[in-house]
Design brief:
The chain has 9 helices and 7 strands; from the N terminus they run βαβαβαβαβαβααβαα. The protein is α/β, with parallel strands linked by helices and about 300 residues long. The protein has one domain: NAD(P)-binding Rossmann-like Domain (Rossmann fold, 3-Layer(aba) Sandwich). Helix 6 packs antiparallel against helix 9. The longest helix is centred in the middle third of the chain and has 28 residues. The radius of gyration is 19 Å and the shape is globular.
């Protein structure tokens, strides 16, 4: 689709990271931008940053895990701009608590933002995209959506985003509706994803303690994130995909190769590769060694 000064773009998780980079990239095409995030102060700063580019910018504090708040975001967008053309369901979080022995609220939080946030975004904005005569939906998944091994709740949520996106794509095509869909599956990107706990919602009670194993993994993952791709590079690929009406966006081809190899193993009905043998992951051998040491230390107490 054509992107210009008549295009209205909504981006969730827009106060930082890939979301802010997307907002800037679309603003660079002259688009009007609606920024949504739960971090109010950072969102205000992001709005000023986008407005300084000479485009219209609206900031709406939004918890995408809550359907009513996403509906309110859609209403605010229509009230301000009269319509919407591109919706980027980008907000995402990752927790540090143990998936199997930690509190169930940690699962609820990750799935609430990463999975339900996309569902709410599509359902709230799709009627408005159709009323506009067409548009595009961008869903930010992750390489974890086709290659698990990061964190069970996170992996599950991103697998769901891939499935949602493909289902939406097929629905639009089979119905002949003029809505494009893109599914973004990045690997390591320089964002604040490791520090997602800063946005733990009060409604879920006390923030779960980060277990020792989670701390070990987070430290190594944080190092990989710090050395990752700049968000702006991902955003440029997203804008190009929207312009070309392209579905898949894989910023990290090396991770895609791992995913292809995984599907070959599935086809041969082979067991999953142990984590410590996965090439390209952040110091997997070191992580496993530290985890085993921590577990052994715990057993001795």
């Amino acid at each position: 689709m054509q992107l210009d000064d008549g295009t209205v773009v909504v981006v969730t998780g827009a106060a930082s990271g890939i979301g802010l980079a997307m907002a800037e990239a679309f603003a660079g095409r002259g688009c009007s931008i609606v920024l949504a995030d739960v971090e109010s102060e950072a969102l205000e700063t992001a709005q000023r940053r986008i407005a300084d580019r000479g485009v219209s910018a609206l900031a709406v504090v939004t918890d995408v895990s809550q359907a009513a708040e996403v509906e309110a975001l859609a209403a605010a967008t229509i009230e301000r701009f009269g319509g919407v053309d591109v919706v980027c369901n980008n907000a995402g979080v990752a927790g540090r608590s143990d998936a199997w022995f930690g509190p169930i609220e940690a699962w609820e939080w990750v799935l609430g933002v990463n999975f339900w946030g996309v569902v709410h975004g599509v359902r709230a904005f799709l009627p408005h995209l159709l009323a506009r005569g067409g548009g595009h939906v961008v869903n930010t998944a992750s390489i974890a959506g086709i290659y698990p091994g990061f964190s069970p709740p996170y992996d599950a949520s991103k697998h769901a985003v891939v499935a949602i996106s493909e289902g939406l794509y097929h629905s639009m095509r089979s119905s002949g509706l003029p809505i494009g869909v893109s599914c973004v599956c990045p690997g390591w990107v320089r964002t604040g994803i490791v520090d997602s706990d800063r946005n733990w919602p009060d409604r879920l009670g006390r923030l779960p303690d980060a277990n020792p194993i989670g701390e070990i993994v987070s430290r190594h993952v944080g190092r990989a994130v710090d050395e990752g791709m700049p968000p702006a590079m991902v955003a440029d690929l997203v804008v190009a995909a929207v312009g070309a009406d392209r579905y898949w966006v894989f910023p990290h081809p090396d991770f895609l190769e791992l995913a292809v190899e995984r599907f070959h193993r599935i086809g041969e009905q082979l067991d999953p590769v142990p984590a410590e043998q996965i090439p390209g992951m952040p110091a997997q051998a070191e992580i496993v060694a530290e985890v085993l040491k921590a577990l052994a230390g715990g057993d001795q107490q």
